[in-house]
Amino acid sequence: MKSFFDGVRRHIGNMDAEHLREQYRRLSDEVLSLDTLFSTISQGIIVLDERGEVAKSNPAARELLGMDPEDALQMLAIPHGKSSKREIDITYPEARALEIQTVPMGDGTLVCLRDVTAERERTEEELRIGATRAVRDLAAGVAHEIGNPLNALSLNLQLLKRSCACAVEVDECIRQVERLSGIIHGFLQALRPSKPNLVRGTMADPIKGCLRAMKPQLEERSVTVTLNLPSTLPSVALDPAQMEQVFFNLLKNALEAVKDGGSIDIALSSDDNDVITTVRDDGQGMTPEQVAHLFEPYRTSKEHGTGLGLMISSRIVRDHGGTISVESELKKGTTFTIRIPRIERRIRALKG
Ligand code: ADP
Ligand code: MG
Q1: Strand 333-341's sheet: what is its strand order?
Q2: Which atom of ligand 1 is the closest one to the Cα of 308?
Q3: Which ligand sits nearest to residue 313's alpha carbon?
């Protein structure tokens, strides 16, 4: 635009009427398109004259300020003839953050207004994520450090139990130390998952291993567990220790959900693609709201729960290429279903 005027000014003495008309047409086209831009742009623009009064403003400026720019100028004490930039919070017509920038322009001032609400929220979100990550790393470090003295404590308590007369109290200490170890173990596993070390096996093995380990707790509560195994079971690629952890989490939840004397049914089957394991309990069940938030971290309905068991389990199942799903009815019970791909399918999928 500036070079256009310079050009016209330089040559105006030599221009004939036709030439001048042509330049005028070009100029009016240019002004028209600038005018369209001015009135449709989402940034607010106010042009102040040499006295600092509003010479021109666009609809976006009025909309962003929620009032007449003349009134807003006085209220906001917008500097005239200077470069400036600041952010203000406005509450009307809605709560938002406005960036106001002024640029000297000739004798007047150009005022640009921009809605930076979303930008500011994004920055805050990034800060929050950064802070969460820092806290998480710190927590993981601390948890790891607590693990070692806890192990030593547990070992010494076992020794103490053999030689002292207060076995009941020592037993209670051992139980509490084990609980602490369990919490820390779960926490660390949730924060630092390890990829499964896959070997060929069947889903029956980790289930049996888990049932053996949990036998005393199940018996103490007189909970019956039935295991329904088909005569042949296709192989899967699994990390036995991680899969045992999944069943430990599911059975522990089931045990905590059923009444004394309740029952838990585990059934294994297969279809063309997957080996399917269901763990069903006749316990207290869950509300639709609880089900909706299942597998999310730190969601627990228990006084001493961590809300990490299902999250870790679902991650392990996913890392095995499988899926985990749940069906539950309040006061009736809950069924978890795990599908792990049959090894032939995995190989087929890998071959593409
Ligand atoms: P935690 O057991 O530490 O609470 P989990 O991740 O294992 O954490 O379980 C999360 C929540 O899901 C539990 O607190 C409980 O409310 C619900 N839940 C899980 N399994 C069952 C179940 N079999 N029956 C009823 N509620 C369950
Ligand atoms: Mg649990």
Answers
A1: 224-228, 263-270, 274-281, 333-341, 323-329
A2: 6
A3: 1
Predicted local distance difference test score (pLDDT) of residue 352:
55
Please tell me the number of the ligand nearest to residue 293's CA. Answer: 1
Do 326 and 337 contact (CB within 8 A), yes or no?
A: yes
Is the alpha carbon torsion for 162, 166, 171, 174 positive or negative?
Answer: negative
pTM of structure: 0.60
Superfamily for the 198-352 domain: Histidine kinase-like ATPase, C-terminal domain (3.30.565.10)
| Per-residue pLDDT at 208 | 95
Residue 291, burial from CB neighbour count under 10 angstroms (0-12, 13-18, 19+): middle
Are residues 59 and 77 in contact, defined by beta-carbon separation less than 8 angstroms?
A: no
Fold of 2-108: Beta-Lactamase (3.30.450)
Instruction: Spell out which residues line ligand 1, taking CB within 6 angstroms.
Output: 249, 253-254, 257, 281, 283-286, 290, 294, 299-302, 305-311, 334
Burial of 299 (0-12, 13-18, 19+ CB in 10 A): middle
